[in-house]
Every structure is written in C-alpha cells, then in structure tokens.
C-alpha cells in the first residue's frame, strides 16, 4: 500500500529538521526503493549543504508551522525549507509532495520525477510547481526547468509567490500565458505594482498573455484608483512589449528573427546579383568579341537569365526594403525594447548596412554618446500605447503580403531545380517534352560541369567560329497523291535500296545503314509525309539519372517500341582537326560526322565533329553498353548532304521497358567501312592505356572493355 510521502531537503541548520529516527521507518517496499534512489541522487549532487529527511505520516508535518503560524497541511510551505515545492500526482496514485533545494533544481526535478516513477510504477499525470520566492523567476536555471516542464506536461501549473506571500502569480497550462494575480489580504496596489515590476522584469515571461487580477478587499490606499490605473497601464505596456508585431514573442526573439530574415534576403539578393553580373559580363564580352554561334547561344541564355534576374532582384530588393522598414519602425517605437547597444551589436553582427543602424538610432532618438549602458525597462514603460506592427509587410505596389518564407522557398531553388527549369524552358521552346534530373544514388545535385552557363540545345548544332553555314537542302517534288511512300520515286530517298527508312507509324525499319535524307521544307510533299521523323521535336520525356557505377545516364519513364526515334545528339560543331586535338574525358563527348570518309585516308576539308562537352543536350549522358538498346542513324533534313553535317539520331533497337537505362555501343563491331558516325570515346578491349581509364561497367557478360573516366 502506498502512503503519502513528503521529502524535504533541509539546510543543516534548519530547526524543523526531522529526527534521524524517522528515517528508520521504512514500512513499505516502494518507499524504501524511492528512498534508496533519492539517497543515491543526493550523493550525486555532491552538495554538502543539504541533507535528506523524510516522513511518511502526517505527524512531522503537523508539528511544523507555516509562516503564518497555522498548523501545516499537505501542500503548505515549510518555514525553514528554502523555496520550492513540487507536487506530483497521478489519478490512480496518492499525491506526492517534494520540497527541494532550488540550487539543485533541475537535477532534483528529474531525479524526483524518476524516483516517483520507480516508486509508484506510474507516470506522473499532474505536476504542480510552486515557487515561494519570486526572485527565483529571474534564475535562468529555474526558468529553463520550468520551460522544459511546461513543454513536457500538458497539465502544468506554475504558482509563483513572492517571498512575503502577499500575492501569487499563477500561470496555467495549457493556455500557458494567463497570469492570475492573487493578492493576499493587506496587499496594497503600490506593493503589487512594485513587486510585479520586479517580477516581470526578472521573468522571461514571453508566454504571458493575460493578467487577471482579483482583489481580495477594498484597497486602503487613498489614490488607489490612480495606482490601479498605473498598474494596468504598466501591465499593458509590458504586455505590448511582448506582443511584438502581432505575435507573442520576446523582443529579443523578434529582433533575432528580423535580423535573420533580412540577412537571408540580403544574402540571396547579393547572390542573385553576383550571378546576374557574371551573365552580364559574359554577354558583354560576347558582344565585343567575334561571335560564334556558341556565343550567340550563351548570349541568348544570358539575356534570358538577366531578364529573369532583373525581376527577381527587384522583388528581392522591395522585399528586403519593406521588411527592413517595417522591422525598424517596430523596433524604434516600442517601449521597453532591448537596448540600442544590443540593436547595434545585432546589426553589426549581421552586416546590416550602416544606414540601417543609423535609421534605428535616429528613430529612437539616441545619441551615440549614450550607448554605454543598457536601457532599463522601467525607463521606457511610459509609452504604453505602442503601435503593433503586423507582419508580413505589404508590398504597396501590388498590395500583396510579402512573405519571405514562401518567397524564399520559391526563389532559393536548388541548383538542380534551377538547371532543370532552364533546360525545360529551352526544350519547350524547341517543342520537345520535359527533362528531369533524378538522383537516388547519392547527393550530387547535377552532373559535374553542368552549370547555369552550360548552353542547352535541344535539336540543333551550335557552329564554332569559322564553320561555314550549311547550304540549303534540296527537296523532292512528290505530291500528296503519289506521296513519298514510293522510295524509288522520291528523290530524297534515292540512296535507299527499295525500302523506306521509316514505317508509316514513324518507326525506323532497320533496312538501311545509309544516311537518311528526310523530306523537308524544300519538298513539295505534305508535312505528314512518312519520310519525316527525326526532324520533329522529341515527344518522350527523359530522365537524366545517377547510375550506381557509370556516372549519370539516361532513361525514359514510358515503354518504348523498337524503331522509335528518340532524339538527336547535339553540341558544338567543330572542325575535325579541332576534335583531333581533344583528349581524355574532354574527348569522351565527341562524335565524328564522317559520312563520306574512307578509312586510312586524310579526312576531307569539310570533316566535322560534334562536341557535347561544353554544350549539348540530354543525349550526352547516354552511357555505353556492350549489349545496347539504342543505335545511331545519320539523318539530313535541313542541310545539303554534301555539307557533311548530318544529325545523329538515337533509335531503340528493341522494345524497352519504362525506366530502363538507355545505352548504345560506343564502338560497334558492325560499323560499315563508310561509317556515318564515329564516337570518339571508344569502349576498347585493348589493355588499359592510362590511369584515366575505367573498366566498362555495362554489366554484359564477358565484357572486358575500357572507357575513359568521364569529366
Ligand atoms: C558520354 S559520357 C556518358 C555520361 C557520363 N556517364 C556522365 O556522367 O557524364 C561517357 C563517359 O561515361 C562513362 N561511361 C559510359 N558508359 C560506361 C560504362 N559502360 N562503364 C563505365 N563507364 C561508362 C565513361 O567514363 C565515359 O567516358
């Protein structure tokens, strides 16, 4: 059976210290468990100033006296014991009252809590905590402990009593923040006001929202009306100070929040400006120098970025300004705010502009000479009607609320989101489907070397400096009736041996190794002619995803059928001799367009290569496999075949399930003597040539090939 237990930590000289004899009364097992635990804890505290005493009947308590001389009841204050009384109750367990040494308050609480649990085998349901000395509310450790207890206990009551017991303040959970002022008989409003000021000044009571004052008797003071009014004003002021910008928060917290918001806005603003500046410089140098079409693309991207940035920068600028102004106004007019010294310090720490600091100081009417000391709360309390500044501030131009949280999340996109957005925008302009970067393997956001300045080109070449523009293509004269279905009659398809390159559904027939000349703008046939396939924008969305062993690769989130033309290899069109100078990973994104070349002969003057190292599209991420599911076909439609500038189109060589990695053979054995395309990156079976090579990890059985390490 449980009995009520009172544990008292007394100072050694306490006259009410219970006799040693009472300690020997260990009548029930739970109690002795509890005692053992506490004994251990007490030693743990290592404080010699206290000793442990206990009583489990009411006799000792009854012998004691309350401060007012009445017989002591359960829950009353014991004269000699310093200050704190903790009552833990459980609906099914007897009440426990612990009175503890405030010097060990936090340790003691948790120990007592544990002790209670061990002794009763139950979780305490209610926690009542009485502070008999209001000064303790200024003690950081106690305030911290209260805060912890409050957070972990739904039904938590704090009662604060000033030392002279003239009134008590009660903050009741879960509303946590209502303060009940319960003056005892004889307490005058003057005393109340004084004590309340002291108490509130010391309390970190930002949880306080309401003061309910019940007066036990008519006030004896002659000017009690005025004092009461003062009292109310004082409280309102105090409360306003803690109701900053419409939210219950301490001014310190408010400042910290504002400063961090402004700081992050400024940071963002500066970052965007820096990026934008880089784009502008690029644009300027592109305009000054001899402009290749690569520079044109870069230029176009830079302009696009500048336009977007200009918008963002202006929004950011407005937002930062509004936030600052509103924050400064709130800070500068509120009474009882943190000292100017503190504001100065905060401003300095967060690099707020000098002008901002001046604004605050000016608004607060402070001369620099007076910054030595902190402004006391009492000095500012006369401004009891401080305006409350509502946040978020409103953008006066658009009348919309400026909410940094949502704005920042929108603007502060990850690198992946920014690049993905940019690539999609360009793909969309080219009429192509979406592109997504997916990384479920590690935390790399985007492939190495892909930044905001990487020019994405969905389906055309960028011409290097000095590359002649292609001549116009020549068209067929087929009419709708005859159509281009008859290969022998369509001049565009004259190089094919009898059967067309595409089925009527637009799938590659695999009937030819030759270059495919598609009907085009110069032809008289209609736009839905079956000899037009690769020239249309990509219709399938692609995912550039991080593979486990082969860097980034490509997959398509839908099933593919054999013969589907997926997209074109793009990049910078360079002369062959330039391509020959490339080596290592720099060369591993380069295709030779060698349609009319004979092996072992010098390449003709108009031999070109496509370099996708510094610009290109999603196809540059297609990895090699010895058992590939794609092959490449050469297609011409907007240049003359003699120009030697065909497009390289990727075609599915089998039905491919959605999300299967797309691969092609970097060095196919079946290449004909006159190849139409030759990937510079070779998956070769010769021995490893340099340390910059890696084993082919395509997973095909018997694969013994080597590839270069990608950039
Ligand atoms: C055109 S890139 C392909 C994209 C590349 N994975 C990336 O992350 O940029 C060619 C490079 O990818 C890597 N790679 C491609 N296929 C591979 C394979 N089967 N095994 C190992 N590495 C491969 C090699 O480093 C090669 O030089």
UniProtKB/TrEMBL annotation:
Q: Does the keyword Hydrolase apply?
A: no
Q: Which residues form the SET domain?
A: 540-667
Please, one GO biological process term? methylation
Name of one Pfam family that matches: Pre-SET
Q: Which UniProt keywords apply?
A: Chromosome, Metal-binding, Methyltransferase, S-adenosyl-L-methionine, Transferase, Zinc
Tell me the first and last residues of the signal peptide: none
Subcellular localization, as worded in the UniProt entry: Chromosome
Can you give the residue ranges of the Post-SET domain? 692-708
Domain of life assignment: Eukaryota
Which GO CC terms are listed, alphabetically? chromosome; nucleus
Q: GO MF terms on file?
A: histone methyltransferase activity; zinc ion binding
Domain (Pre-SET) spans: 474-537
Note the SMART domains from the entry.
SET (SM00317)
Which PANTHER family does the annotation name? HISTONE-LYSINE N-METHYLTRANSFERASE SET-23, HISTONE-LYSINE N-METHYLTRANSFERASE SUV39H
**Name of the protein described by the UniProt record:** SET-domain-containing protein
* Source organism per UniProt: Mycena sanguinolenta
